[in-house]
Amino acid sequence: MAFQHLNISVLLFSPKTEIVLTEKVPDTITTWSATAMCVNQRSGFRMSEVAILKTYQPLVVSAHMPRAAVVGERLPVTVTVHNKLHKCIKVRLTIEWNANFTIHNNPPNPDPVCVCGGENYTKNYYATPHFVGSLPVEAKATVVASTCKKSRDIDLSYTGISHKVHRKIRVKYPGAEQSYTYASYFCSEDGKPISEEVYLQLPKGKELVRNSAHGQVQVIGDIMGAALNSLEYLVRMPTGCGEQNMIGFVSNILVLNYLNDTGNLQENTRQAAVNNMKIGYQRALQYRHQDGSFSAFGNKDPKGSIWLTSFVVKSFAKAQKHIFIDEMDLKRSIHFLFLSQLETGCFRETGKVLSSYMMGGLGQGWGQKNRRSPQGALTAHVLMALMEAGADTNDPSIKLGIQCMNRELHDHKSSLDPYTLALVTLANIKYNSTSPDAQFAFNKLNEKALKDDKHIYWTRGHKRQPPTANTKFYPTAPSAEVEMASYALMSYLQFSPNQAEKIAMWLSRQRNSFGGFASTQDTVVALDALSQFATSVYSRDPTELKVKVTFTSAATWSIVEFYVPEDDRFKLQSKPIPVLPTTLHISTSGTGCALVQANVHYNKPAKEYVKGEKPNFTLKIFTRKYRFDPKKCDYRTLIIKIKSRRVHFVSKGMGLLTLRMVTGWSPTPRSLTALKSSSPALGIKRLDYEEEEGVLHVYFDEFGRKAKRFKVDVVQDQNLRVPKPKLADARVVEYYETGVITVQRYRIKTTCRSKTKKPDRKKGNTATKANNQQTLSASAGTSSKCPECITSWKIPPHFHDEVCNASAVYRVKAGRKGRRPLRLRKDLRPRKIVDGLRLFVFYQMPPGCYCPLFSRTGGPREVIIVTTKKVSGKYLTLDRNSIIMKATRKASNKARAAQKTCPHEEKE
């Protein structure tokens, strides 16, 4: 129901004057509240009583469908027509689908139906999506000129009136989403052609979800790249805590400063960035404590974090020239930082630091063997924030902090980790770039650099990265290593600007498809460094660059060209990659610079897998009957266990659980409330449920040695019962170590349906036995209820999923002449096969269903029955979720092979 407010001023001079107002109804059902006020010399001010007027359309269409689904699922779509009149009308209901759907029961010219006054008409459709994206669905009801049977009370005055609704279903491929980006920065100042070749590969065979691979090539005439065009999508990870909120705030500052410094800032861009910064500022204040400190989850944390507070102080100081920042609040936060300073001059850690590497070298202080308090990196970080906020470098506290930091620098010069060293070097440069300590720290940083012809970078160990050219996935560096290179780039711009370009080139290759990086902190630091580099090398010379990309595969080749003109160098140009895998040959002609990146996306089958190094935790998920009422078929309880594998506990920072819902299911509000109440014991800091995506995000402060075990109750929308939903998955990742990820799939069976009753021997009319089975094919009205009967020797392509969704896979001798026509020999579904079942049973199917494999003609035969219902007593019930097929050795072997990879339910 919509509410609209109108202010209308009318001057009436005559006592009996009337006025008629005509207004457009803003929605299908609208409530109008009318109040009249008048003033005259004799009576003064008077106000009438409120008059309520409801307006509505004669008919309204509503559509109910899943918001998110998986390719290949059979989705129910319920469309309802509501007649708001008192009389009957004849309505033709049509539904328009995207071409990427297959519709199972949508005739091209449906017959109109009669809907009487105050009544509803509901039509159920089924659609199977074959492509991904936000696919549109449109339902329309139109009143037609016709009569209703046995009804004289029909209204023809509304003939031609129609109403339509638009909905979208977000469709994804099954499995785990994967992506990688290849990026390279081309610069040709003298017009000399530059070329490069790269092979974009995909996983082979069963490691790739069919048809899921797609990609695009993007070109932009600036090293800041896609970040200039997609600030809101820089990080693909969920961003739900205080530190992660800062990315939307800081990235706008950096881009605004960069465009302003290079003379390319447009007024509309400035306004958009300023508005985003104002929103980000207000959000950041939600995570502030009374003492001026900030923490990742605000008052949910016992105290503020000095690391996050220094990050916020530095960001607010940069934003002051663009938006209003409360000076008293900023001073209170700065005061908190000074209160955290020790007598030695270094700063002590307070509060929770969500990434251990931000504390300095995997939480191991200055040296890998010296497990000291990480004061070096933290002190450098706080000092840079204070100097950014305008602290006087002659302030005794600043001097004392610099002295403590450099004392540690010289005392541990042989065991400095590169992360701490990069921070200390930059802090010294900001304090006094001409000091011996700044030069000493820079020399040590340069010694630890890994270099090749095109790149300079740093790693947490001393192993050189594998070559990125012509390799399989072009792996990106962890967040900590991106930060190292970013801090180092800002130092090199001061001491060795000629080598800075090689660091910038390496950073460009670590980006995601939106121009960001793995997580939030590395994205902010890297954008800061790249914007400084881009400003230093920005050329106002004319740019006239042409980029030619040739796609070559085994079957075809094609060419696309991009033109980067001077007046449009910040425009992001994109072209789809026609086929994958493929070889890209990139060549340039003309003068100027351009960033070229190829983004590849694909899905891997949803099986348990580990990406990158062995994870420090395990994940298990079990599907159980509803804990409060096991008889409720539309409820389930998910039991989730997360446990650290580490023998020697070392915190690795914030963890994130992403639980994707099975189509048609969602977490119950009661369950989420209970989970929030148990947050302190489990270390849960935040819950976010994305209804549009069907994804639950759970943030943990860390994963320890003690197992985190909790339950999530889910409920199925009874109007959206997907018959055979695809598997869903849960994944656990360390937020700042995104290369370490564990995935576990799970399934939920759809069991709410009308069940065939067992036979009543006294009445003998409820079940259909073999000796009186109808020898007719399923009629149109019953085909959707019948089991799938495969009379050929071919194994269906969906056999694997059917086995995984089944409760039993029976090898059966059918067509027997005995009283009970089926003999169950084996159940192939369990991991351990039980031979010699020797069960003689009846079978029962919905009326009108028939499978010739059960016929006694031709004698007994071996068949395989895949069913979601195990034999009960003397009866085996078969319905639309069952498959009957010929038994072969190949089919039996495939059933056994399939069950070994199936997720297991009802076990713990």
Automatic annotation (TrEMBL):
- List residues traversing the bilayer: none
Biased region (Basic residues) positions are 752-761
What are the entry keywords? Disulfide bond, Protease inhibitor, Serine protease inhibitor
Q: Where is this region: Disordered?
A: 752-783
Q: Where is the composition biased (Polar residues)?
A: 765-783
Do the record's keywords include Repeat? no
Q: Which domain of life is it from?
A: Eukaryota
Domain called Alpha-2-macroglobulin: residue spans: 10-95
A GO cellular component term found in this entry reads: extracellular space
Key word Disulfide bond present: yes
For this protein, the record's SUPFAM superfamilies field holds: Alpha-macroglobulin receptor domain, E set domains, Terpenoid cyclases/Protein prenyltransferases
Citing just one GO molecular function, the answer is:
serine-type endopeptidase inhibitor activity
Q: Using the record's annotation, list all stretches that form the Alpha-macroglobulin receptor-binding domain.
A: 652-746
Indicate the family of this protein.
Answer: Belongs to the protease inhibitor I39 (alpha-2-macroglobulin) family.
Q: What is this protein called?
A: Alpha-2-macroglobulin-like protein
The organism named in the record is: Plakobranchus ocellatus
Q: What is the lineage of its organism?
A: Eukaryota, Metazoa, Spiralia, Lophotrochozoa, Mollusca
